[in-house]
């Protein structure tokens, strides 16, 4: 997502489901395209990437990518992201009030930010907003919903029927994960329990 120097998040973002067992060492091309100009020429912007566990919606870590040439209409940024083996829980000294927690960026030793609780935003998590996401999703910002594993859409109200528990195509309690909705609505991958393998476990 695009953020400004005050930590405000632009309303447009990209969200992907990444599975290390399937996507490890895979190159992803993500385009942050905005229908309206979200940038103000008087502010500096950067990219923030947040990682969540899609099964629990627990926060994992964040990366910070500066935009080098703010005056350009188009920027191409290349980055290699290494996912840490343990969840980020290192606290830091930035005061984030009652509704936020100070976190360090995984790729920047001295850069910190306030990760706000649901319903709160701004640099120090002191502005409230009404969450419009589905009840089983996570409100990251007023206009950003992190969807659970088998839901999608801007507010996480659309269900991916291919992986419904009633007709789970994965055998022996394998985990059915729908492929990115932008690619195919009906394609899925089975993550098999230990001792099972194959396309459908």
Automatic annotation (TrEMBL):
SMART domains: EGF. Keywords: Disulfide bond, EGF-like domain. Disulfide bonds join 92-102, 116-125, 192-201. InterPro entries: EGF. Residues 88-126, 159-201 form the EGF-like domain. It comes from the Eukaryota. This is EGF-like domain-containing protein. It comes from Rotaria sordida.
């Amino acid at each position: 997502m695009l953020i400004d120097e005050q930590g405000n998040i632009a309303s447009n973002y990209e969200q992907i489901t990444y599975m290390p067992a399937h996507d490890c060492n895979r190159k992803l091309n993500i385009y942050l395209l905005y229908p309206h100009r979200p940038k103000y020429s008087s502010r500096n912007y950067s990219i923030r990437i947040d990682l969540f566990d899609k099964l629990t919606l627990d926060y994992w870590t964040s990366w910070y990518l500066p935009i080098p040439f703010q005056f350009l209409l188009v920027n191409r940024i290349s980055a290699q992201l290494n996912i840490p083996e343990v969840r980020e829980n290192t606290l830091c000294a930035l005061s984030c009030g009652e509704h936020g927690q100070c976190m360090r960026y995984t790729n920047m030793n001295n850069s910190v930010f306030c990760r706000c609780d649901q319903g709160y935003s701004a640099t120090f998590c002191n502005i409230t907003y009404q969450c419009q996401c589905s009840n089983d999703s996570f409100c990251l910002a007023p206009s950003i919903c992190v969807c659970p594993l088998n839901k999608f859409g801007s507010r996480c109200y659309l269900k991916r029927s291919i992986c419904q528990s009633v007709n789970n195509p994965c055998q022996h309690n394998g985990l059915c994960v729908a492929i990115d909705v932008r690619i195919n609505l009906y394609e899925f991958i089975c993550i098999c329990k230990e001792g099972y393998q194959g396309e459908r476990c």
